[in-house]
Design goal:
Strand order of the largest sheet: 1-2
Distance between the termini: 41 Å
Number of domains: 2
Order of helices and strands: HEEEEHHHHHHHHHHHH
CATH topology of the largest domain: Rhomboid-like fold
Shape: elongated
Helix content: 55-70%
CATH superfamily of the largest domain: Rhomboid-like
Radius of gyration: 21 Å
Largest sheet: 2 strands, antiparallel
Number of helices: 13
Length: 296
């Protein structure tokens, strides 16, 4: 999942922990910092050295106010969720549990959770109407390598992205990306059943690219990594649903753009409404577009 160019570029790793990959920059010194080193500021996050310098430069009045309010200063808040990507770990745990259930003979977990376009068009396919498979498909995989690579990518990206976005935004991104991957498969290749979290993982790629470019981070390594994974989907013999990769990446980029444009606290309601609108748009697309294509 890495390249020599990516690994040799120190800009892609925390300056205090060189073994930790990150794409988050300190808003004061613009150096890369990992979740453990991030402290939420009024705008963005700052590193421990800049935090120390800011504390030293406080005026006597600010210091008296901090003592008076027992350190509850509005200038600098507590570290973002203590830098622990709990939602990432939770998704990995649930997916791994479902993966174990897939190994039990007779349960047919894969057949119950996989997605195919027929499950949203019962009148055309004769399948039962089960639209929830748009999402449950992200929980099942075709083998140990499939689930292993997807969860490795989720772990790598989630450690940087979840503390930056917050747990619930991160979950919304993952869910919308998974649904977006299934929708893309239904529209581009309606006869293809699909399983796996690739769409959701590529949504993380897409969001991280948009946010990283906005912050001015060096995204060369991530571009290379994303490009390699997209190309693999077109290689004969790999049996990979590249449609889910593309759909997830596009949806992830849109979610990243929404979060960037509505990141102020006063815009929170607009952020929620826009994410709901994106979810509705995906559902409209999966129910309407394939019918139009069939009609043509």
């Amino acid at each position: 999942m890495t390249s020599s160019e990516f690994a040799s570029n120190s800009d892609n790793f925390c300056y205090r922990h060189p073994d930790r990959q990150s794409f988050v920059l300190c808003q004061r010194c613009m150096r890369t910092i990992c979740p453990e080193c991030q402290t939420q500021a009024a705008v963005g996050v700052i590193c421990p050295e800049c935090m120390k310098a800011e504390r030293q430069n406080r005026t006597p009045a600010q210091k008296r106010a901090q003592r008076r309010w027992r350190g509850r200063s509005t200038a600098v808040a507590a570290p973002v969720q203590s830098g622990r990507p709990l939602m990432t770990y939770g998704i990995i745990a649930v997916t791994a549990f479902v993966g174990l259930l897939q190994l039990i003979p007779g349960l047919n977990i894969t057949g119950t959770f996989l997605f195919a376009a027929g499950y949203v068009f019962p009148d055309l396919s004769g399948f039962p109407f089960q639209p929830w498979r748009l999402l449950t498909a992200v929980l099942v995989h075709s083998g140990i390598w499939h689930i292993g690579l997807n969860m490795l990518a989720l772990w790598m990206l989630g450690r940087s992205l979840e503390p930056m976005l917050g747990r619930w935004r991160f979950l919304a991104l993952y869910v919308l990306g998974g649904v977006g991957g299934s929708v893309a498969v239904a529209i581009i290749s309606p006869g293809t059943p699909t399983v796996g979290a690739s769409g959701a993982v590529f949504a993380l790629f897409g969001a991280l690219l948009v946010i990283g470019l906005h912050m001015g981070a060096n995204m060369t390594g991530l571009f290379v990594l994303l490009g390699i994974n997209l190309v693999i989907g077109f290689v004969p013999g790999f049996n990979i649903a590249w449609q889910a990769h593309v759909g997830g990446a596009v949806v992830g980029a849109l979610v990243g753009l929404v979060i960037l444009r509505t990141r102020k606290h006063s815009q929170r309601i607009w952020q929620i409404l826009l994410l709901i609108a994106l979810a509705v748009l995906l559902l409209v697309a999966v129910f309407v577009v394939p019918r139009l294509l069939i009609g043509l």
